[in-house]
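hey can u check if this looks right to u? its 385 residues, i copy pasted from the old doc so theres a chance i mangled smth
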Amino acid sequence: MSKYKMLILVDGAKGHTGLFLIKALLEKYPDCKIMATDLPSNERERIMTKEKIFGEGHGGMLEVLDDERVEFIAADLSMPTTLTPLFEEKQYDIVFHVASLYDYFAELALLRKINVQGTKNLLDAICKTQDLNNLRFIHWSTCGVYGEPEYEYDPKTKYVIPANEAIPYNPPNDYSISKMEQELVVKNYFNKKRLKMTIIRPAPIYGPFQTYGTFHILYLAKIMGNGVVILLFPKKHRLMFPSIHVKDLVHAAIMVSEKKEAIGQAYNVCHDPIWMDEWLEWLNEQLGIQHAIIPIWFPLFKLIVKACIILAKLKNKKVRKLGLRPIVDLPMVKYLTHQYAFSNQKIKDLGYNFEYDTIDGFKETLDWYFKQGWLPSVLNKRVVN
């Protein structure tokens, strides 16, 4: 590997974010060598059932793994013996720990096995084989670890003030619980082993070929064919929509890996806040869907969502008995009344300049979905330039 100036490990390499990260690394560092890892194909297919809900495919991105600078080795973070080939006779400059089971339908025990114990297994292997003085470790977390914070409100506008990284953990579901516990493992290795780690906490991720999370909103718009945009009042309950384009996410992760002052820190990675009702109105217009804007008193909206949650629980119970899974997972329904407003000021102060805002990013993403035929039927009214 003498012809390469950097050696980088990327786990979760066949996932949505992992593939975009590898592509960005190859562009950023032409003289790097990337060791890419993910589950063996049959095991990935068994565990990643969420990827079969809306369709399969990687939008042609798997081709990045064919680059001569990329070497793929299958491994399972929950099985320490499979990690040995990743570290034999190798000294990494950066490890990007992207791999996790991101699935709201998964049981907590499985989430802990993969996300928490898997991270500990990876860090144990790193500490045994790597020079921690020279290694940077970038850990993928989520803004979901905050849950719904206790916000402050602007005294003039009465609107919520986005929360920063100093707010405490309050995870609202099993997935977020596992990500919180995962962060605590990483922090422990920072404190006890001097691991030079940085934690990034993305908002919900979107971008080409993303099929779980924000794509649910697009899918529901598709099958409904018409929409209602809810404007909540009083002002303090008007919801914000947090998101991050996958390209901005991976570029931000690469940037923090280059900054010494980022060691031991956590960063929210999200676009500037946008109002949920404004974004939904824009989305419906982009999709050519007829819609109405309806003001609703927040307590009434909570009652409506409560009824939806009851139905979602019944559906959840039924599909589990049948060995299936729902199109929309129960925690996603519970998010309908939650205020998730997060500040990106800390990573901006570090020097990151976002390539996209929410509107630009989603316009590009919608264009990709249409061109690939991933949003057919009622949405084909929209003309893609």
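Residues 6-212+242-272+341-358 form a domain with the Rossmann fold fold (CATH 3.40.50.720).
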